[in-house]
Structures are given as structure tokens and as C-alpha cells.
Specification:
By secondary structure, the protein is α/β, with parallel strands linked by helices. The protein folds into two domains: about 5-225, 4-Layer Sandwich (Metallo-beta-lactamase, Chain A), CATH 3.60.15.10; about 250-355, Oxidized Rhodanese, domain 1, CATH 3.40.250. The chain contains ten helices and 21 strands. It has a six-stranded mixed β-sheet with strand order 1-2-3-4-5-6, with helices on one face. Strand 8 (about 105-110) and strand 9 (about 120) form a beta hairpin.
């Protein structure tokens, strides 16, 4: 089987995931956020996916879960079997196998941020929820948090996974989309302590200190069996103890005129990657470029290595900048170059387009 269909939907630092089976088109929606329901539905339509289940990796404190808006009609909610959430759900145990079409994932318990925190591992990726972040670990100052347990469970359950496993966290900081287990072993400052006790001592925080009135209000709704949810609430808190991720980096960015000159001398199409979604690329594209959707770049890291400089473009230059920063941190591309203005800037200059102009 080819790699899973993967769509990462980011919103104010929160990351939700659509993970789909390429053979059956069944998909899993992970950590949906209230206010983004139309985005999830639109992406399922664009990718031709049918929702099989919704999974919340833990009881969220920072934002409201949209799980109840997708449950029903044969779509179950999956959560840890230890959760205190009152809504109807299928409780999961450590080591349990979950099926999404022909895909198979293993449930990993990683308590610490919350008692009911789980991760999902399989097919070269691990969805870590609010446990292991890019360059950090989750906060441990909410009611029920345990910093020592968090550190030890991440060490025992996640860092023993294969080094090339993609790390897909519940939050993204510093414009980085994903990481790998090897990269976190090497670069994550929170993982350099001798043990969980030493890590907990370094934080000097106590469980409950982070529970603001907004956090407590979110927890009430996220624990409720059938909550009345507002349409587009904001986040109540950040959920990373130290959202460092990387030191400040400078990515080279070029405009359409310089890009046009470089385009003429490319060694091959894989030196210029368009990171837009497949339906965007199929509609209209810069000739002689390769399509690798932003969310699925992690499945193509070996293919991308060795292309320096590596040119990256999207619709306007925003997604491709995220791609450039992510690939540079992973050491895949030492010299990624962002095409400023993207395909919109390219076609504004009258440069050639295959298919329809982007809008």
C-alpha cells in the first residue's frame, strides 16, 4: 500500500489531521477544533474521503473539540479508555489496533499532559497529540497533569519508535509542520534530562496553576455528554511547555522574475516542488514542477534529499515557506528557496501556466 492520505489543518497553533486510506477512501479525523468544521468537510470532499471515525487524543483544555459535530450515523468517537469525557465513545487501550479502511494503527498511552493522553502510530507516522511537540513537550500545569509522568511516557512510548517516524503533534509552533523521532531525539531540549524527575524539577510548576477560568470553561464543555458549542471560539491557552522548535532561521526568498530565470535552468522537475493540494495542482500549475502536497512532504524525505537548492512554491508563498523551514530543520534541504508570491505572482507577470490560472 502507498502511504496514507494525510491532510494537516492548522488553526491558531492547533493542528487537526485527516488520515485516509488510499484504497478504500475511509478516513479518520483527529482532534477536530470547533470553528473549523467546514474546512474538514471541504478537505474530505476534495480528497474523496468518507469519515469512518473521530479521535480526540485527550481531553482538550486549550480549545473546544468539534467531535460531537461529526459523531453519529456510524461515525464513532475514539478516546482513551481512561477518559472522564461523558459523551458516547469507544474507549481505547494501550497496544490496541485500530482499522481505518485497510490502514492499521496502534494506540499508545502517553499520560502526563492529561491522564487520558494517547498517540496513534502506524504507516510511518505517529500522531502525538499534546505530548511530544516539535522542540518541546506539553504543558504540565493543568489539573491532572504530571510532568515526571509525561517525560517518562514520551521516552518509553514514543522515542523508541523508528527514527524516521513522522511526528505529527497536536500543536505547531514557529511555522514548523512536522518532525521525526530522530530529529526530536537530537534537537528537542526538553528530552535532554536524565529522567522525568529532573525534567519536572526544571519546570518549577504545579498541577492546576495553569487552569484559568477560560481553561476551566473549555473543560466543562469538552467533558459534557452533549455540549452546546459556540461557533468560533478562540484558544484559552497554549499547550506547549517550551515551544522552541528551532533557533531563528532565514530562508532565502526570490520573486517571480528571478524564479523564471532559475526555472529555465533546472536540472529536473524534482528540484522545484509545488506544495499545494492535489486538486489545486491539477487545475493549474507552473510547467516542469513536481507536486508533493505540504501535508505529505514527510513521506517523501528521501526523495527530496540532495536537491540543493530546493525550490518550493504554493499559491502565494505562505505554505511553501512552512515547507522550507520544516525541511531545513530536518536537515533534508540545507538550502531551501521559497518562491515569494507563489503561482499568483508568477502568472501576474504573464509567465506560462499549464491548465487554468490560479485564483
Amino acid at each position: 500500500m502507498s502511504h496514507p492520505i494525510l491532510k494537516i489543518i492548522s488553526s491558531d497553533g492547533c493542528q487537526s489531521y485527516l488520515v485516509g486510506c488510499p484504497a478504500t477512501r475511509a478516513c479518520l479525523l483527529v482532534d477536530p477544533k470547533v470553528g473549523r468544521e467546514s474546512i474538514y468537510t471541504s478537505m474530505m470532499q476534495h480528497y474523496g474521503l468518507e469519515l469512518a471515525a473521530v479521535l480526540d487524543t485527550h481531553t482538550h483544555a486549550d480549545h473546544l473539540s468539534a467531535a460531537t459535530k461529526f459523531m453519529g450515523a456510524g461515525v464513532p468517537l475514539w478516546m482513551s479508555g481512561s477518559t472522564q469525557v461523558k459523551r458516547e465513545l469507544k474507549g481505547l487501550e494501550h497496544g490496541q489496533e485500530l482499522a481505518v479502511g485497510e490502514l492499521r494503527f496502534q494506540v499508545l498511552e502517553v499520560p502526563g499532559h492529561t491522564p487520558d493522553s494517547i498517540a496513534l502510530f502506524g504507516h510511518g507516522l505517529v500522531v502525538t497529540g499534546d505530548s511530544l511537540f516539535i522542540g518541546g513537550l506539553a504543558r504540565a500545569d493543568f489539573v491532572g497533569s504530571d510532568a515526571e509522568l509525561l517525560y517518562n511516557s514520551v521516552r518509553a512510548r514514543l522515542l523508541n519508535l523508528p527514527g524516521d517516524t513522522l511526528v505529527l503533534p497536536g500543536h505547531g509552533y514557529n511555522d514548523l509542520l512536522f518532525s521525526t523521532i530522530d530529529c526530536e531525539r537530537e534537537l528537542n531540549p526538553c528530552l535532554r534530562f536524565v529522567d522525568g524527575a529532573a525534567y519536572a524539577a526544571s519546570l518549577d510548576c504545579s498541577p492546576g496553576a495553569g487552569n484559568s477560568p477560560a481553561v476551566d470553561a473549555n473543560l466543562v464543555l469538552n467533558l459534557h455528554a452533549s455540549p452546546e458549542l459556540p461557533e468560533s471560539p478562540g484558544n484559552a491557552a497554549a499547550c506547549c511547555a517550551s515551544p522552541g522548535g528551532s533557533t531563528a532561521v532565514t530562508i532565502e526568498e526570490i520573486g517571480p522574475f528571478e524564479a523564471k530565470t532559475i526555472h529555465a535552468g533546472l536540472s529536473g522537475p524534482e528540484q522545484w516542488v509545488d506544495v499545494r493540494d492535489p486538486y489545486e495542482y491539477e487545475s493549474g500549475r507552473i510547467p516542469g514542477t513536481t507536486s508533493i502536497p505540504l501535508s505529505e512532504l514527510g513521506f517523501h524525505l528521501p526523495r527530496l534529499r540532495g536537491h540543493d537548492p530546493l525550490y518550493l512554491s504554493c499559491r502565494s508563498g505562505v505554505r511553501s515557506m512552512t515547507a522550507a523551514k520544516t525541511l531545513q530543520r530536518l536537515g533534508v534541504a540545507s538550502h531551501p528557496v521559497n518562491i515569494g508570491g507563489g503561482i499568483l505572482g508568477w502568472q501576474e507577470q504573464g509567465f506560462p501556466i499549464e491548465g487554468l490560472p490560479a485564483t
